[in-house]
Write a structure and sequence with these properties.
With 258 residues, this protein is mainly alpha-helical. The protein contains 9 helices and 2 strands, in the order H-H-H-H-H-H-E-E-H-H-H. It is a multi-pass membrane protein.
Length: 258
């Protein structure tokens, strides 16, 4: 527990420096996190698929999304996704022994890690990025303590035996309250809408958590890595954020808050 706390505090300090530095420090860190996350994902599934170049296309996909942002090519997302799909399709045509399972595992990683995390780039210089971390991490925190004291009904015992329905509900309430308090304190417009967004964002972040658990179950591993002592790898720490990022981004755009 001591190692986990120390590691968490160091991680938080690094996060603060990155967020307040902005610019290339911010965007470069997101790219680094994405590439490490892809490496962890590919390593996890390497026993389930053949190690073909499809996996390496995910790295190129992540780099393309990075340059799309720094070059201000926001309108070219569709083209990048199209080229990514075409590249994978060409690989299927040229590599006779490539199976549909190989391609499916690889492309899922590209969307799950590279595409979802790329939404963080759009929050550069905005304090609204804290809503992502608040929703994801307050969900985890409140779910843990609510489940510890009041948990009776298992949520998904085949994936995460310790998670409970009561804990999940506590996570939703905790995330919503935390997001509203944040919005009121920093005088963010649309407090009611942000509260609603946090409720659904909490549910989606928990889906992200369970998705990461499902992948680990399929791959037969306990953690994706040990980059953060006591926390596992990047995907272990960012599992909820991966799903929360695009949801909160699109919600804020829909509400006209970004």
């Amino acid at each position: 527990m001591k190692t986990r706390i120390i590691s968490g505090l160091i991680g938080l300090a690094i996060l603060l420096v990155v967020l307040y530095s902005g610019g290339m420090v911010f965007k470069g860190t997101i790219l680094a996190i994405t590439l490490v996350g892809l490496y962890e994902y590919h390593r996890a599934i390497e026993g389930l698929k053949d190690k073909y170049i499809v996996s390496y296309m995910n790295y190129l996909f992540a780099i393309a999304l990075f340059f799309k942002d720094i070059l201000g090519m926001e309108d070219y997302l569709g083209e990048i996704l199209f080229l990514y799909a075409i590249a994978v399709a060409m690989h299927m045509v040229l590599k006779r022994d490539t199976t549909l399972k190989d391609v499916s595992y690889s492309m899922f990683g590209g969307i799950y890690v590279a595409f979802f995390l790329s939404h963080l780039y759009s929050f550069e210089g905005s304090m609204l990025i804290w809503l992502i971390f608040i929703v994801a991490w307050m969900t985890d925190t409140f779910a843990y303590f609510t489940g510890m004291f009041f948990g009776k009904h298992k949520l998904c015992p085949h994936l995460s035996p310790k998670k409970t329905v009561e804990g999940a509900l506590g996570g939703v309430v905790g995330a919503a309250v935390s997001a509203v308090v944040f919005s009121l304190y920093f005088k963010v417009n649309g407090v009611f809408l942000i509260g609603i967004m946090a409720v659904f964002g909490s549910v989606i972040s928990q889906v992200g958590d369970l998705t990461a658990s499902r992948i680990k179950r399929i791959a037969g591993i306990k953690d994706y890595g040990n980059l953060m002592p006591g926390h596992g790898g990047v995907l272990d720490r960012f599992d909820s954020i991966i799903f929360a990022s695009p949801f909160i981004y699109y919600s804020l755009k829909l509400f006209g808050l970004m």
